[in-house]
Inverse folding.
């Protein structure tokens, strides 16, 4: 017996002993009446049911009443009383609950099978009803489909932007509004920058050019390349396509290299209405560049399917709740996180447990760029972070339990060990600068900072240090000779690649009235005119490429006036063009002192045989053909090859320590000062001997100790004070004429 037979048997109240014939006779006259439902408006359905002899049930709907399953009978979905689930539930429930006069109720264990109805009759279509809902498919109200269509179908494209889909990071700015505000930002752009949509819409794109997001209109950019900004701005004003790589900053200050492509599009007229900017992070996705074109632009794959969510740093304490759950993404499609998943719990507020702290510290140690290590007071490595492989080229196992003397320069090990032992005397911080030997690349300068750690309960002492490579100065004598040597009116500075003053010599106060402490930490762009900032950037870039570049410009003094100077930019710690220097050395001299050869010390390169340089009393250098008399400095030997390093004391292969070299330099400077003072003193003596005697004698009374000397007949200051007064009275008595010897016998003619 099929499920349908059983269902009908239960429905009609028959028993298992009923024969098939009896059931068939009953079914031929049976009808199913559905209960009342408000949705059907008092309609009653009577369905005749029949069966054949092959146990195949053929049920035909012959009711003249409308069927509840007929589309024409279904009320509008807008009717609040209509609920299809209630209708079907009530009908099926009524069918399942029906029982006959006899038999067992087996319907509770059998599946409910609704009656098989005939084909659904479609109502006649009288006319299509169309309702317009503008903005139904755009939560922002912006037609991005039309924008991307115009980008793809733009006439005369200048840049091949490559494949673009909706996973791309892009912006749309309104070119018809003031300051080009952002009117649309993709969700991927929010993930890339860390800013929310409410923080982006209505702002100019320049807020990405500073770590704090505050950049004034028309200001010089301090944290990104001004040339790239000018390139993008000039092309946007001209309504042209452009592409440039620029350093942008995420929310919280994290920098990233952004390859920006800007495409102008029109809308209702031929004028540019919008600019569409496509972005890609070249640090996270260097493979996004597909091809480099002949004009210097790039074909970029803007489909960033694996862009990870950027988590901006928290402002508060690490233990505060920062709703980190909203930043946690599916790790299967995101970039792999280098640390364990417990870090997320730590950030979320579990930092008060000791286990979480240990996990956090372990993660910092394993991923720190600096070489973090622990030394005993005897110089034994007790711990080494994994970064030693990258910095020192050693494995951790090779350094553990070994002594610092095995990799430290022999000339530096004595002062280093002395510093380690003195740290046990309660020194606040331990600062070490020494040369260390890498496994394959030779010696390099190493700088370490740390402090003493006392293990509680055991009394064992060790020093925890964080170290990194220390770049040192490298400058050849020939580079200094090319720009005219050294002058009196100049000062030297150390700049970062971005133009930040890291050091300034004390001579800057003589020229600019600024102390070295006032200059350190400021930017060189603050002291140059706004029309020369591009030239300063170009000079810094040239020095970064390993070239020496001189620039004539004006620099601001402390009194508000500008002084014309010549600044020479040298690559700081690299003399080879294939290495990128980490800082720049600048020599700034006054233009008035540049043409004067008398005030400069020219360092001429040695050609065949080295000769001693000599200095004249006024500071000029004397060569073989220079007739200027020279005074040789005693005990000072100045002999250099053109390719020698000016800072040869910092050479990694030098056999002495930097402490010894510094002490010798102090002694040398002391000797130079003493000799300079002796030269000045000898010049004063010669001038005093050649000057006429100041002993005066009165021409009348031969007096020598007069407090004041007056005019006499032989000229001014030839008479003492008393004789001069009498001589003046005689002149007044005679009417201003010259006195004669007969008038005043006391005044006699000068017989000297």
């Amino acid at each position: 017996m099929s499920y349908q037979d059983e269902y009908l048997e239960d429905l009609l109240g028959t028993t298992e002993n009923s024969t098939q014939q009896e059931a068939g006779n009953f079914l031929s006259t049976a009808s199913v009446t559905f209960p009342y439902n408000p949705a059907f408006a008092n309609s009653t359905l009577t369905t005749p049911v029949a069966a054949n002899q092959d146990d195949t049930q053929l049920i035909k709907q012959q009711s003249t009443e409308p069927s509840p399953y007929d589309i024409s009978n279904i009320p509008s979905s807008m009717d609040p009383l209509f609920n299809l689930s209630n209708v079907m539930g009530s009908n099926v429930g009524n069918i399942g609950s029906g029982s006959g006069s006899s038999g067992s109720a087996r319907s509770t264990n059998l599946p409910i099978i609704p009656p098989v109805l005939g084909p659904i009759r479609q109502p006649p279509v009288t006319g299509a009803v169309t309702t317009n809902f503008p903005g139904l498919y755009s939560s922002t109200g912006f037609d991005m489909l039309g924008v991307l269509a115009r980008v793809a179908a733009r006439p005369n494209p200048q840049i091949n932007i490559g494949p673009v889909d909706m996973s791309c990071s892009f912006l749309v700015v309104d070119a018809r509004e003031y300051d080009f505000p952002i009117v649309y930002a993709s969700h991927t752009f929010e993930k890339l920058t860390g800013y929310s949509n409410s923080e982006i819409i209505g702002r100019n794109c320049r807020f990405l050019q500073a770590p704090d997001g505050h950049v004034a209109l028309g200001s010089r950019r301090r944290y990104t390349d001004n040339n790239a900004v000018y390139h993008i701005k000039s092309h946007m004003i001209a309504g042209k396509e452009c592409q440039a790589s620029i350093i942008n900053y995420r929310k919280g200050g994290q920098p990233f290299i952004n390859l920006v492509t800007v495409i102008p599009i029109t809308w209702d007229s031929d004028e540019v209405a919008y600019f569409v900017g496509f972005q890609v992070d070249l640090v996270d996705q260097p493979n996004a560049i597909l091809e480099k074109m002949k004009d210097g632009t790039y074909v970029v794959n803007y489909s960033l399917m694996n862009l990870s969510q950027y988590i901006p740093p928290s402002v508060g304490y690490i233990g505060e709740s920062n709703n980190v759950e909203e930043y946690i993404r599916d790790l299967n499609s995101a970039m792999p996180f280098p640390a364990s998943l417990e870090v997320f719990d730590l950030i979320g507020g579990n930092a008060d447990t000791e286990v979480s702290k240990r996990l956090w510290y372990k993660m910092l140690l394993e991923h720190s760029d600096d070489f973090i290590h622990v030394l005993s007071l005897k110089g034994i490595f007790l711990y080494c972070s994994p970064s030693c492989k990258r910095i020192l080229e050693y494995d951790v196992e090779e350094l553990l339990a070994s002594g610092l003397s095995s990799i430290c320069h022999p000339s530096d090990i004595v002062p280093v060990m002395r510093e380690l032992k003195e740290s046990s005397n309660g020194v606040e911080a331990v600062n070490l600068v020494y040369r260390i030997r890498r496994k394959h690349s030779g010696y390099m300068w190493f700088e370490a900072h740390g402090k003493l750690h006392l293990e509680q309960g055991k009394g064992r002492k060790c020093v925890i240090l964080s170290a990194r490579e220390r770049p040192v100065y490298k400058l050849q004598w020939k580079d200094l000779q090319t720009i005219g040597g050294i002058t009196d009116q100049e000062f030297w500075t150390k700049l970062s690649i971005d133009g930040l003053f890291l050091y300034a010599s004390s001579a800057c106060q003589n020229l600019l009235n600024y102390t070295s402490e006032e200059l350190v930490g400021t930017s060189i762009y603050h002291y140059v005119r706004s029309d020369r900032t591009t030239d300063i950037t170009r000079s810094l870039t040239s020095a970064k490429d390993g070239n020496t570049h001189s620039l004539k410009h004006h620099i601001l003094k402390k009194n508000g006036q500008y002084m014309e100077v010549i600044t020479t930019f040298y690559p700081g710690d690299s003399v080879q063009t294939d290495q990128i220097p980490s800082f720049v050395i600048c020599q700034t001299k006054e233009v008035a002192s540049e043409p004067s050869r008398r005030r400069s010390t020219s360092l001429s390169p040695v050609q065949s045989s080295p000769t001693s340089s000599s200095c004249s009393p006024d500071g000029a250098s004397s060569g073989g053909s220079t007739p200027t008399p020279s005074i040789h400095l005693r005990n000072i030997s100045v002999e250099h090859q053109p390719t020698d390093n000016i800072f040869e004391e910092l050479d990694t292969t030098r056999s002495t320590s930097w402490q010894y070299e510094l002490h010798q330099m102090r002694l040398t400077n002391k000797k130079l000062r003493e000799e300079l003072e002796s030269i000045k003193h000898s010049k004063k003596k010669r001038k005093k001997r050649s000057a006429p005697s100041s002993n005066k004698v009165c021409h009348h009374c031969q007096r020598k100790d007069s407090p004041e000397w007056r005019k006499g007949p032989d000229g001014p200051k030839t008479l003492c004070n008393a004789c001069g007064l009498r001589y003046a009275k005689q002149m007044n008595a005679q009417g201003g004429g010259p006195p004669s010897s007969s008038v005043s016998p006391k005044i006699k003619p000068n017989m000297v």
Notes: The chain has 18 helices and 25 strands.
